[in-house]
Design goal:
Layout: E1 4-9, H1 15-27, E2 31-37, H2 43-52, E3 56-59, H3 62-72, E4 76-79, E5 95-98, E6 121-124, H4 130-136, E7 141-144, E8 176-180, H5 195-198, E9 203-206, H6 210-214, H7 219-228, E10 234-236, H8 245-250, E11 253-256, H9 261-266, E12 272-275, H10 290-295, E13 308-310, H11 316-325, H12 331-341, H13 349-358
Helix pairs in contact: 1-13
């Protein structure tokens, strides 16, 4: 009987981490199901599901998802973030694995959530953070495999998912800057209002976080993004562009803020500039700044020199110029940290994950 594997997917941006694993499972004959969470406006999800012919089941919330897993009893459920209540599953029938939706090495601390301790197995990118995970989650089996999302970027060059700049209305003869801000804390509202004009000698790809594009609370930053998209040298991601992969493949330099994409892009040995000039809500300023420290992941501070840092927006242009002209400046540091944090980058991460999922675990102590 084929192994059955369910992918828990509350947000579309989990999909790029899952897709290489799904493709490998499908190649080996496993039965896969994506468990999507119902949204008020489902058209985006439906278009992606149709595009990739994904096998799907729908749930309203985590409680309904948990009931589904208890009833269907798949061999594995793959999660991209914490999910409480897993201890109620019949572990003789169903095991749970964490394939964290990001590299888990950004400055936000989501990858260290207490709820992540309820899974049976955690797939880890590289060796650097194993001691932290062992201390926080002593009952979780840790398996170091690499970062599955990047597999498409380490395959044959002709198969890498790059954009055609000319088809985007950009100039193929110009170098390309990727601006990939996260949703919070973000640098969007502290960028210059006409900054694309100041960067006219470059193509600019803007790939914001999925939340910025689709959640009403980020309407003001989104308005800024649409204003910048009017410039001839700018192409703004559409909501259907849920994956950062083709943006990273196409760009020469990336500017971002508090995103784990810092380490993803740097692992390609391409320069990263971190915009330290993020805008904080009033509830995170002054005497309430401790709330920001709680939100951020201090364990990644030792790796922040993987990138150049722009303390103010007015510093950004000169740093982009520098990194475009001298992309090898931090190459040694990038490759050193990539080995520690992202692990093996050989296009075969999904193969290692599937090898583990499909092996006989009947003698494993639960």
């Amino acid at each position: 009987m084929p192994q059955s594997v369910y992918f828990d997917i509350p947000h579309l941006y989990y999909l790029p981490q899952y897709q290489p694993v799904y493709d490998e499972l499908k190649r080996r004959g496993a039965q896969c199901t994506f468990v999507f969470y119902e949204k008020p406006e489902p058209s985006l999800l439906l278009s992606v599901i149709e595009q990739y012919a994904l096998p799907v089941k729908w749930v309203k919330d985590e409680a309904e998802a948990l009931a589904l897993y208890r009833e269907d009893k798949p061999h594995w459920v793959i999660f991209g973030n914490d999910f409480l209540g897993l201890k109620t599953l019949d572990k003789s029938a169903t095991r749970c694995a964490l394939l964290f939706h990001g590299s888990g090495t950004g400055v936000k601390g989501a990858s260290l959530s207490p709820g992540l301790g309820e899974v049976d197995v955690r797939f880890v990118s590289g060796p650097a953070r194993l001691p932290i995970f062992r201390e926080l989650y002593p009952t979780v089996e840790l398996v170091t495999v690499g970062f599955a999302k990047l597999d498409p970027l380490f395959g044959p060059v002709e198969q890498q998912p790059t954009f055609s700049l000319s088809e985007l209305g950009l100039d193929p003869d110009k170098k390309t800057l990727l601006y990939a801000p996260t949703f919070y804390p973000s640098s969007i509202e502290n960028m210059g209002r006409d900054w694309p004009k100041q960067f006219a000698e470059y193509n600019i790809l803007i790939k914001p976080h999925d939340f910025t594009l689709n959640k009403k609370r980020y309407a003001h930053p989104l308005k800024r993004l649409h204003q910048w998209a009017q410039y001839d040298n700018v192409w703004l991601a559409k909501p259907t562009d849920y994956s950062l992969i083709p943006f990273m493949a196409t760009a020469d330099v990336m500017a971002t803020d508090t995103s784990s994409a810092i380490f993803e892009f740097a692992s390609l040995d391409k320069p990263v500039i971190v915009c330290d000039f993020v805008r904080l809500r009033w509830s995170y300023r002054g005497p309430f700044r401790y709330r920001l420290r709680k939100r951020l992941d201090a364990s990644t501070e030792q790796y922040q020199d993987i990138a150049t840092h722009a303390k103010r927006f007015k510093d950004l242009k000169s740093l982009v110029d520098q990194q475009m002209q001298q992309p090898g400046l931090l190459s040694t540091k990038r490759l050193e940290y990539a080995e520690k944090i992202m692990g093996q980058r050989d296009g075969k991460v999904a193969v290692r994950i599937v090898d583990f999922l499909l092996k006989d675990h009947s003698t494993t102590t639960r």
